[in-house]
Each structure stands twice: as structure tokens, then as C-alpha cells.
Amino acid sequence: MRWDALFDDLDGQWDAEQRLEREGEVVDRLRREQAALTLDDRLAATHGRRLSVELLGGLRLSGAVVDLGDGWFQLEDAGRALVVTSAVTTLTGLGRGAGPAGGSRRLGLGYALRRVSRDRRSVRMHLVDGQVREGHLGAVGADHVELHEHPVDVSARRRETRAVVVVTHRALAAVLEA
Known about the structure:
single chain; alpha+beta; SH3 type barrels; 10-stranded antiparallel beta sheet; 3 helices
């Protein structure tokens, strides 16, 4: 009987060690998977979720994620805001998981800016250095966008462009509907 108890105890210890080893492997695999995720991957799981965002230049935004692509996402609250992912300093409300690839996710910042440009609406462009410029978007290049500067409260018919400013994508933090 004592031998049976001893072997049962050894079997139990062996099973416990095996279980701990498997759990450690699972935790290690999860950490490796988490380490490979990009912010874009995590944002892909947030469609419809409300986020609070802080950007280079001091801008703070909040709203529900309504669209996203490669290097950008769009928030909607009282209006729409196109946010450049590389300008994000902090996010609140982001889940831990990653979302599926697909949709407009593979489309870059140029795509999103062309969509805004096509609407010809007045915008406030926030730059990573804190500058805010107003006007409407013109031509969108591979790494830059034209801003036709004018006051946002001027009607679309009476827009008098003061200047056409070329802004590089890397200087851009967000474009907000005016």
C-alpha cells in the first residue's frame, strides 16, 4: 500500500510539472504573438469602439473608430477626424487583441486623404509640431498633400485661397472636418 501511495504521489507530481510546463509554453507563445503586433493590428479590432487619443502637437480627440487603413484611422464623434497612426502618443480604450486583415486596411494614408479631398469640405489640419492650418485639401501625392488655405467659415463659393501649402505626410497628425 505504501508503495502504491508513493507511486501515486510521484505520478501526481509528474502531472503537475507537465501541466506547469505546458502553461509556461502557452504564456511564452502569447507573449511572442503580442510582441509581433503593430498598433495598426490592434486598431483593426476596434471598429465601432470609442477611443481617446493624444497626438504629437498636443491634440486630443475621442470618438468611435469608423474606418482604418495602413497608417491611419478615422474617428467619428460630432464630426470626423482622420488620424495618422504615427502621430499617436497615447490611446485609451484599445482592446488587447488584433483584428482581421481586410476592408480598407491595406489602403494607405494617400487613399484616405484623397477621399477627404474629393469632398472639397473645409478642414482643420493639425501638424505634429502643434500648428493648425485651415482650408481644403487639393492634390494628394504619394508622400504629401496640398492644403488650399482659407478661413473655414467662408462659403464654398466665395473661397479665396490665400496660399497653397504642401504638407508632408510625416508632418501630419490629423485632419478634422471644420
